[in-house]
């Protein structure tokens, strides 16, 4: 059994050393304000509040009746929704496959949740079939989930269909969760937008996308490339053409900016994961943005 | 001698090799296409969303260029293959040479005595017309009186023959009873030996001498002898006419006699001449006093019509030109395509260098 989580932890510890931050705790914002141990803030007493919550010392200082508020101590559920169609079996860049990157970024998210004491669930699938693994806690369970994602992504798998996976999430997950979507979408179709709109009403949606290897480059790229969807080889005469590279780069950039704009419109916090080096930073960035988005 | 080969037929020497090569090429093509269509070439990496390339204008340009070059290259390779296969099969042509006309010898055997000289002019004149229409035959000229000399041996150099005949015509035209021209004397010098002045116009000896002028007797050739004489013989020679005719018949020589009346007061041995012609299967023409050259022409035309049938020569030769041309065109086109591809690649590289 490959130790997916071990790699995640090793990376995370390096990252933590580099940036002296309390990385592994409190990285994502709690959803509900309620009663718990963690103190949140004070507010003026209104009728109906529990008398036990009155902060007498603070009230004495300010000469007005204040009550303490606590962050709800409820356990959260993080749902990893991973698209595992065959397009995910392709290369992300010359070194890393999209599968490894998807497993890695899911692992980072899941590990943060596990360290936080939260539950992790998994929904994964392709155009033909979708699966769900119920929320549970513990590193061992997370490792198993990552193994499932890893094994589901093969070049022989059916095509990717993120909208199908998200619809399955809508059907299978009833409670309010933090939904982490990991996919390789290049654009947001109307169907996908509809699914996302529905899900954002129920969940906190974090959208992570993985890019593709540029099939037009030759330097540092594999010698032979096969289009995993078409099943045909990318002909050698297409690669290394300067003008084609420029046009392709412009196309990818245009698609990405359109994707961002569309997700912004939908109010979905999103981030592009470029490689394993920047994956952790991307995860924290998306968590940061989610926090701000929620407080606004 | 002019040889004209007529190509009748072309076929393959090794048709089985052609079949084998075609099967081989088709099999190689099939294997190649299989490999080409195989879903996963070994050692390949996967890339997703590559179909986005199709929407790019540059992609369409590249595909068009590729299609053009690939199409040309394939056609060129196929043409080269076909050329190679044709070469391998060894196309052979069967050529046939008709030897009928090319295998006849005609010896002109002229009596050089003064009595026949005017007739000789007619004979020679007509013979010139005949020569102009000949192809492949060899002509020779022998003149005799009491000795025979060869004016020219059997040859197919017709320009030379015509020159000689003109010379003969001029010479015979210069004869006169009283005062023969210098050309006549020069021309007939050696045919009249003073020591044997009681012998002249030795027809049989002249005939045998002419017969002996035929060469290549071991070859199967048509041989004709045109004997122009008046048949007046003074004295006796080695042969008589019967023996001479026999001698000619032994070598398969056909004697055509053009007899002329000669001097009016003397009788020639026309019967003997006719017998000689008959014995060798030839013709006999008696030119009367009013006899014209047309009769001679007729006789010689008859002679020309009497061709002998011989089996044609057949030879088979390789005809590699088709294969060579096909293979050459194919290889040339292929080289052209490769050059164009190389130039495009080079242009792309320099382009990349200039715009990093």
Give a structural overview.
Chain B: It comes from Nocardioides immobilis. Chain B: The chain crosses the membrane at residues 14-37, 68-89, 325-347. Chain B: Keywords: Membrane, Transmembrane, Transmembrane helix. The complex is a heterodimer of chains A (296) and B (356). Chain A is α/β, with parallel strands linked by helices and 296 residues long. Helices cover 42% and strands 21% of the residues of chain A. Chain A has 2 domains: 4-14 and 74-295, von Willebrand factor, type A domain (Rossmann fold), CATH 3.40.50.410; 33-71, no CATH class. Chain A is built from 8 helices and 10 strands. In chain A, strand 6, helix 6 and strand 7 form a beta-alpha-beta unit. The relative contact order of chain A is 0.14. Mean pLDDT of chain A is 83; it is low at 18-26 and 30-36. With 356 residues, chain B is of the alpha/beta class. Chain B folds into 2 domains: 12-40 and 56-92 and 319-354; 101-305, Rossmann fold, CATH 3.40.50. Chain B has helices spanning 15-37, 57-89, 117-132, 158-173, 182-188, 203-212, 241-250, 270-279, 293-305, 321-354, and strands spanning 5-12, 45-47, 91-97, 104-111, 138-144, 148-155, 222-229, 253-259, 284-286, 313-318. The mean pLDDT of chain B is 82. The chains are: A alpha/beta (296), B alpha/beta (356). Chain A binds chain B through residues 86-91, 97-98, 155, 184, 186, 212-213, 215-216, 222-235, 237-238, 240-244, 247-248, 251-252, 255, and chain B through 39-41, 43-53, 55-59, 62, 66, 348, 351-352, 355.
Fold blueprint:
The complex is a heterodimer of chains A (296) and B (356).
Chain A: H1 4-18, E1 33-44, H2 56-62, E2 66-71, E3 77-83, H3 98-115, E4 119-125, E5 130-136, H4 139-152, H5 162-172, E6 178-183, H6 190-202, E7 204-210, E8 225-227, E9 233-234, H7 242-266, E10 269-273, H8 276-295
Parallel strand pairs in A: 3-4, 3-6, 6-7, 7-10
Antiparallel strand pairs in A: 1-2, 4-5, 8-9
Helix pairs in contact in A: 1-3, 3-4, 3-8, 5-6
Chain B: E1 5-12, H1 15-37, E2 45-47, H2 57-89, E3 91-97, E4 104-111, H3 117-132, E5 138-144, E6 148-155, H4 158-173, H5 182-188, H6 203-212, E7 222-229, H7 241-250, E8 253-259, H8 270-279, E9 284-286, H9 293-305, E10 313-318, H10 321-354
Parallel strand pairs in B: 4-5, 4-7, 7-8, 8-9
Antiparallel strand pairs in B: 1-3, 3-10, 5-6
């Amino acid at each position: 059994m490959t130790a997916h989580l071990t790699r995640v932890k090793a990376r995370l510890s390096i990252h933590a050393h580099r940036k002296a931050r309390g990385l592994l705790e409190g990285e994502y914002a709690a959803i509900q304000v309620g009663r718990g141990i963690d103190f949140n803030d004070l507010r003026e007493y209104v009728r109906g509040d529990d008398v036990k919550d009155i902060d007498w010392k603070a009230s004495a200082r300010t000469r007005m009746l204040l009550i303490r508020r606590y962050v709800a101590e409820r356990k959260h559920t993080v749902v990893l929704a991973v698209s595992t169609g065959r397009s995910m079996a392709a290369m992300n860049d010359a070194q890393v496959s999209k599968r490894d990157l998807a497993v890695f970024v899911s692992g980072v998210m899941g590990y943060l949740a596990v360290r936080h004491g939260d539950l992790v669930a998994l929904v994964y699938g392709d155009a033909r079939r979708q699966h769900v693994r119920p929320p549970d806690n513990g590193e061992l369970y997370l490792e198993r989930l990552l193994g499932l994602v890893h094994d589901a992504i093969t070049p022989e798998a059916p095509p990717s269909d993120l909208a199908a996976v998200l619809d399955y999430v809508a059907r299978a997950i009833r409670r309010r969760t933090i939904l982490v979507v990991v996919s390789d979408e290049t654009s947001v179709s109307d169907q996908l937008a509809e699914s996302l709109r529905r899900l954002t009403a129920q969940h906190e949606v974090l959208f992570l996308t993985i890019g593709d290897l540029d099939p037009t480059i030759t330097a540092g790229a594999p010698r032979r490339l096969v289009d995993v969807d078409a099943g045909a080889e990318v002909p050698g005469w297409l690669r290394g053409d300067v003008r084609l590279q420029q046009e392709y780069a412009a196309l990818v950039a245009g698609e990405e900016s359109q994707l961002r704009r569309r997700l912004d419109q939908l109010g979905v916090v999103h981030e592009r994961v470029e490689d394993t080096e920047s994956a952790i930073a991307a995860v924290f960035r998306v968590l940061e943005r989610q926090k701000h988005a929620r407080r606004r | 001698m002019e040889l004209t080969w007529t190509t009748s037929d072309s076929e393959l020497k090794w048709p089985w090799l052609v079949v084998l090569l075609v099967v081989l090429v088709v099999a190689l093509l099939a294997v190649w296409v299989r490999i080409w269509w195989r879903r996963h070439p070994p050692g390949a990496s996967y890339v997703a969303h590559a179909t986005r390339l199709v929407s790019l204008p540059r992609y369409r340009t590249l595909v068009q260029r590729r299609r053009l070059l690939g199409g040309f290259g394939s056609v060129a390779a196929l043409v080269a293959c076909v050329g190679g296969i044709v070469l391998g099969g060894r196309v052979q042509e069967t050529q046939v040479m008709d030897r009928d006309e090319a295998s006849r010898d005609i010896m002109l055997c002229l009596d050089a005595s003064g009595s026949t000289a005017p007739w000789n002019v007619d004979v020679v004149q007509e013979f010139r017309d005949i020569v102009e229409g000949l192809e492949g035959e060899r002509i020779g000229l022998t003149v005799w009186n009491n000795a025979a000399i060869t004016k020219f041996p059997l040859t197919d150099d017709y320009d030379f023959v015509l020159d000689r005949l003109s010379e003969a015509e001029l010479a015979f035209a210069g004869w006169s009873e009283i005062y023969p021209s210098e050309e006549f004397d020069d021309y007939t010098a050696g045919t009249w030996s003073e020591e044997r002045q009681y012998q002249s116009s030795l027809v049989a000896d002249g005939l045998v001498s002419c017969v002996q002028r035929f060469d290549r007797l071991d070859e199967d050739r048509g041989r004709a002898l045109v004997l122009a004489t008046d048949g007046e013989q003074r004295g006796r020679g080695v042969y008589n006419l019967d023996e001479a005719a026999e001698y000619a018949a032994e070598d398969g020589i056909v004697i055509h006699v053009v007899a002329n009346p000669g001097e009016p007061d003397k009788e020639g041995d026309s019967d003997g001449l006719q017998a000689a012609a008959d014995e060798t299967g030839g013709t006999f023409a008696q030119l009367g006093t009013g006899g014209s050259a047309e009769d001679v022409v007729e006789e010689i035309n008859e002679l020309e019509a009497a061709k002998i049938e011989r089996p044609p020569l057949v030879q088979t030769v390789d005809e590699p030109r088709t294969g060579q041309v096909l293979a050459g065109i194919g290889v040339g086109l292929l080289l052209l395509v490769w050059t164009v591809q190389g130039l495009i690649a080079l242009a792309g590289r320099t382009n990349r260098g200039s715009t990093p």
